[in-house]
Amino acid sequence: MEEQFSRTALLIGAGHVEKLQASRVIVFGLGGVGGTAVEALARAGVGTIGLVDNDTVCLSNLNRQIIATHQNLGAHKTDAAAQRIADINPAAKVNRHKIFYLPETAHEIDLTAYDYIIDAVDTVTAKIELALQAQKKAVPLISCMGTGNKLQPAAFEVADIYKTSVCPLAKVLRSELKKRGVKHLKVVFSKEPPAKHRPPGSISFVPPAAGLLLAATVIHDLLGLRVRYEVGFAL
Question: Residue 143 — φ and ψ, nearest 5°?
């Protein structure tokens, strides 16, 4: 067992560490949510990580996005995330896809090459397409709902999309997915009523909290761990 993962092995066992090293996870969207999810996957030792985003790092990302620094302003987010993974776990394999995922670009990525999909994009069209493709190809998917205009990181929960409430994005997704015959979708969502700001406001500790919960759920599922989340207390 590598010393890098020795503390992880103490918690979940060496066999589970090896299983993570053989696992393949793809993350769509590398902002405040997705970038943190990638960080957690890399530090846990996931062996293959797919990165999907066509955006570049800008000044307004610095308040919440773990991959964003003054040093990499203007860099593609896929490149910034890949460099961070390499600095954390050089043994990890990284697949970069510099595209915005939409119905017309969906064919460019083979979802069946992965064991799990994380949806951290912020467009309804992309979320719907990912849900449809994941269901069609029988690849597990977890999707993040809205994190903007919120202040309570402890309000996030993991649930099926059809058991969500309060979140405006989840409401839209429930309706659209039902029309398209998607019967189940695991999501991270918040019951905190969002403030009303345009464009949406954000802060350093909310989107990353959702990203950590996404990564934790993926790792629990990959390893068959059963963990009860205690959530919902107010700050």
Answer: -120, 140
**d(C-alpha 127, C-alpha 53), whole Å:** 14
**Between β-strands 48-52 and 24-28, what pairing exists: parallel, antiparallel or unpaired?**
parallel
Contact 211, 33 (CB under 8 A): yes
Record the tokens describing residue 146, joined without a space: 């809205």
Decide if pLDDT at 65 tops 50: yes
HEC string for 169-226: HHHHHHHHHHHCCCCCCEEEEECCCCCCCCCCCCCCCCHHHHHHHHHHHHHHHHHCCC
Band of pLDDT at residue 1, cut at 50, 70 and 90: low
| Section 24-34 average pLDDT | 98
Number of CB atoms found within 10 A of residue 12's CB:
17
pLDDT per residue as tens digits for the range 110-123: 999 999 999 999 99
**Residues constituting the chain:** 235
In this structure, the strands spanning 186-190 and 156-160 are: antiparallel
Question: Could you give the count of Cα atoms lying within 13 Å of 31 in the half-sphere of its Cβ?
Answer: 25
How far, in Å, CA of 13 to CA of 25, rounded? 20
Of all residues in the chain, the percent with pLDDT exceeding 70 is: 96
Is residue 69 a contact partner of residue 62, using CB atoms and an 8 Å limit? yes
Residue 138 pLDDT > 90? yes
